[in-house]
Amino acid sequence: MSRLGRILILAEMHGRDLIRRHAALGLLIALPLSFYLASAGSGGAVSSGGVGMAFAVSGAALFSVLSSREVDQRLVLAGYRPVEMLFGRLVFLGPLGLVIGGGFSLLMALMSGPARPWVMALGVSAVALQSVAVGLAVGAVVPLELEGTLVLIGVIGVQLAAELHSVVSKALPFYGPRRLIGSSLNAHGPVGGPLLQTAAYGVGLLVVTRIFVSRRVDIARHDLLD
Amino acid sequence: MVTALQASGIAKRYGPTTILDRIDLSVRRGEVVALTGENGAGKSTLLRICAGIVRADAGTVRVGGAIGYCPQIPGVFELLTADDHLVMFGRGCGLSRDDALRRGRAILAGFDFPLDGSVVSRDLSGGTRQKLNLAIALLADPAVLLLDEPYQGFDRGAYVNFWDHCDAWRRQDKAVVVVTHMLAELGRADRVVELAAHPSRTSRGRR
User: Which pTM was predicted?
Assistant: First the structure.
């Protein structure tokens, strides 16, 4: 069985698992919508919606890691590689985040009328993809429900509370997406730089995830008897 | 008979507590070994080390083929069905979707598993989940079976059926290790290995 086949089957199973969580699926859409609608009309509505989406998608990613904690090592024992398990989650969660982000971008473009809707869509997509990387990394480094959730709330909450260009804000994962969303509200503003920042931070998070997942699910390969 | 599992000088500590101290275990093909001992003797730890999911501090494990490991607590996804699990674990060991389902369903049928493809494992009874747990361990047709109290939640019929399966696995030349507290059935094993708790874990040892 090819590596791609194994990754796709894991993605399929993560999808099946999430689709059966009806309340969670509803919240995935309702959470960013609530954040956005609660601040609709104010200057920060688009940013709030983005933050709501960060909470929702990173939460889904975190729990996809935590819900399979008891099974992961057994999957490795069955023949999967840790990196395939990571890609299996990415292949499912990445497109899911983009679909939610796409719908949400459309809504915000219609209601908030940003100067550059395509930059806003880019920013919201960056939030969605970065949220997957953040959720997976937190789940790998802090594989406990309460602690992991609190770390997630902390990171996103501080990112929201910090002034956009402060040192703290720049050190956090959603700095690039926030800049993109900010750029979409006026005719000028950087796009390439924030995209690169987002990509670099996201890749870094995935590397951290890879290291911690491998350490957690690694198994001893025994020598064969003669 | 040919040795299928050989664990030599296995040692394991968790912090200051010694769990296993230079333990040896050898199992031959076509042999069913019952691993017994009081709570905390390290039976599950030894089995996990033999499976490879826990690393020993010292000692070596050598095996004569693929390992099937059935943990004490079913390692399954709450919201996946039995079929989903068969496909997922089957792909891991190189089976196509159809082959995994065919082989897995046959194993489950042997355990009288209710083959309703729409029921997720969260909605299964404890004993039924355990049958799925056992079927996952058997899916790759392993040469060595490591079963950690695999009959938890089984009713009387399923429990007797489990030991009948042990007889069948013996005939298939598999090496089987069963962690068990059910002393009444020890006669159905070829050999009983009793693991004593390390003195550091007993009240006398702690004084």
Answer: 0.91
Same domain as B148, residue B135: no
B148-183 confidence digits (pLDDT tens): 999 888 988 898 899 999 999 999 999 999 999 877
User: In sequence order, what are the beta bridge partners of B62?
Assistant: A223, B6
Q: Does residue A225 lie within any of the structural domains?
A: no
Does residue B164 sit in the same domain as residue B106?
no
Name the least confident of A44-58, B62-76, B95-109: A44-58
The residue range of the domain holding A153 is: 3-217
CB neighbours of residue A122 within 10 Å:
22
Find, among B13, B90, B17, the residue nearest to B56 by Cα.
Answer: B13
Q: What is the mean pLDDT of residues B105-131?
A: 91
B55 to chain A nearest CA, in Å? 6
User: What are the residues of chain B with a beta carbon less than 8 Å away from any beta carbon of chain A?
Assistant: 3-4, 6, 49, 51-53, 55-56, 60-64, 67, 69, 71, 73, 75-80, 84, 87-89, 91-96, 120, 136, 139-140
Would residue A34 count as lying in a domain? yes
Give B188's contacts (C-beta < 8 A, 6+ positions apart).
B32, B163, B166, B167
* Domain around B12: 1-65+143-207
User: Contacts for B15-19 with beta carbons within 8 Å, 24 or more apart?
Assistant: B16/B200, B17/B200, B17/B201, B18/B198, B18/B200, B18/B201, B19/B45, B19/B198, B19/B201
Q: In this structure, are residues B8 and B24 in contact, taking their beta carbons and an 8 Å threshold? A: yes
Two tokens, residue A133: 């990387």
Claim to verify: residue B150 and residue B59 sit in the same structural domain: yes
Number of domains making up chain A: 1
The answer as to whether A49 is a domain residue is yes
Tally of domains in chain B: 2
User: B2 and B104: one domain?
Assistant: no
Task: For residues B120 and B80, state if they share a domain.
Answer: yes
* Type and span of the H or E element at B197: none
CB A209 within 8 A of CB A217: no
